[in-house]
Amino acid sequence: MSRMSQPWVSHLLLTVLLLLCRYASAVKLHKPRSEVLSLLGEQEGRLYFGNCEQSSGRSSCVFAIDESYNQEPTQCAVTSLEGKPWWMGVLETPAYITKITLLNIDQLYRSHPDALRAVTIMAGDDVCFRYESDESFVKRSFPCDTVADQIVIRSRMDSAALTLCDVTVYGAPIRFRGVVDDAGPLRVQWCQQSSVSGNGYCENAFDGDANSNHNARPCAVTIDEATPWMSARLEIPSLVTEIKIFNRADCCGDGLNQFLLTLDNRVCADYEVQRSSRKALGCYKDNHKDRDLGQLVSSILMSHEKCYSICKRLGLKYFGVQGGAHCWGGSTYGKHGKVDEKKCSIPCEDNERQRCGGSIFNNIFEVL
Q: Where does the secretion signal sit in this chain (predicted)?
């Protein structure tokens, strides 16, 4: 599990926090691509990232996976000028990876040596491609043939800035049919935590007792300290598909408002309670040929909070969610008119309790 940036108080809260996590080490394949795809029962297509990080942060790593394809420096993932900079992204699910395409910054904006002139592209622990050239490229695709859930772009240059405006991965997801359907609770062999408050030992978090009252049945509790953490080891190596965390309900529930959850050093979740400021404006009609909101900013696992966060970062006054998955932003809205709220009834992909528009209708909000 992980180090955490807020006090860990395991067991329960009134609401169950559900975190999904899947992990697979890289597996090199030695079969024709068509045969592998046939075995998986999938067609080759685009794969999507769940999260990312990079060696340093002049710009956030998420600019490389936001599907904006904008090559201006402010819209790309950019590291500092440093030795051997890197970028890493974790896919939503383990996959058979066939190709990785990189979009570089527009050369008109380059002010530092280009780290992509000497770069190693990895999927899991396998090297897909080693690239080296005296010239920078704008867009280039690199072949791959492996099963993994993590992509690493690592420069071999001693002093350069890594700039990635888009990282697109192609292949086929591995669904783990049958295995996932039969999934059940996994047993923990041992655990430890950064400190213990009273009788709040880590074993209390894995005893199967979901009592929310610490005084009635002890939970795992650390002392009040900086960056408290808890870790645990499973009895046997396993495919982990879901992690449930139950918080305390008798007090201290905000101790899990922000934390990082990792599995074998892979980030499963970087959780933080979202406090967004937005005003719902209603359901509005859109037009494929004349968009109500002019900028498509994301089409990955959408929610109101995610669309709000991206559009606020981009300085957009209004945002709209559409078709359950798409986030649009703009400075004006309403050119095609307001419609009944029933037209905007598709659940959001990342939060089914929210509504993310209709097939050609936007739930529109104002960024306050």
A: 1-26
AA identity, residue 11:
H
Predicted confidence at residue 23, as pLDDT, reads 43
Q: Which helix (H) or strand (E) holds 306?
A: helix 304-313
Cα 351 to chain center, whole Å?
Answer: 14
Judging by beta carbons within 10 Å of its beta carbon (0-12, 13-18, 19+), is residue 175 exposed, middle or buried?
Answer: middle
Secondary structure (3-state) at 39: helix
Strand partners, 339: 283
Question: Could you give the C-alpha distances from 332 to 134, 346, 364, in angstroms and in order?
Answer: 45, 23, 11
Name the CATH topology of 43-173.
Jelly Rolls (2.60.120)
- Give domain limits for the chain: 2-23+185-272, 43-173, 278-367
Note the pLDDT tens digit of each residue in 29-81. Answer: 556 667 767 766 677 889 999 889 999 986 689 999 988 888 888 889 999 99
Length of the chain in terms of residues written:
368
**What are the phi and psi torsion angles at 220 (to 5°)?**
-85, 125
